[in-house]
Amino acid sequence: MSFHNKIVIVTGAAKGIGRGVARLYAEKGAKVVLADVDQEAGQETASEITAKGGQAIFVQTDVRKEADIINLMKSTIDTYGQIHILINNAGKGLFKSPYEVTLEEWDDVIHTNLRSVFLASREAGKYMRKNGQGGAIVNLASTRAIMSEANSESYAATKGGIVAITHALAASLSEDHITVNAISPGWIETGDYSTLTKLDHEQHFSKRVGKPDDIARACLYLTSSENDFVTGVNLIVDGGMTRKMIYEE
């Protein structure tokens, strides 16, 4: 799977999973555009990539704002001339009683996690259809689209929506040779991995908690030109946790 000179946009790329995804694409030869609302962390990640010989730029972007997303795509075109791959990773959580969630908080999560996927896919798709080669879009959903803890309604709603809009976009953009897929991560530790316990790891069939690189490698698979027969799917990457049957003793 070669990504040499491919132009890749990653939203929410300053930290966590997005950072891991951006770094791996750069290692594989892609030119990466990092989008994030956090300017300091975003520029730091871009500098880290370029210091290792990769190619990356940072574009400060609030994915809740249509104008920012339009600017992100235009900045990418102005710098690199085209867009091959879009990773819609930006998102936020809200864990709060449904009796206490305000409308403003609800809308903030919806706009950050779900509306941004539509807007970014629409705007990137406009350029992908012009290049004659199509492109690939990956949307980061979550296993919380299919299972829940209490007080996670807005987050669950957005992740379920991402799974649904993925297959809808796959249908709509197919005429332009654009594949659209989702990845649903399970427990991906973005903090200090060494602090995890044996019990944490053994909750998984894989016997370990996930890492950002696990999701990054899944992105590579779904956006490789050799895998253009794969579209409209939701790839669950969770170490088997959602398939583990649990009984209370």
From TrEMBL:
Domain of life where this protein originates: Bacteria
Molecular function terms, GO-annotated: glucose 1-dehydrogenase [NAD(P)+] activity
Signal sequence, renumbered to the chain: none
Keywords attached to this entry: Oxidoreductase
Organism: Mesobacillus maritimus
InterPro entries: NAD(P)-bd_dom_sf, Sc_DH/Rdtase_CS, SDR_fam
Family: Belongs to the short-chain dehydrogenases/reductases (SDR) family.
Protein's UniProt name: Glucose 1-dehydrogenase
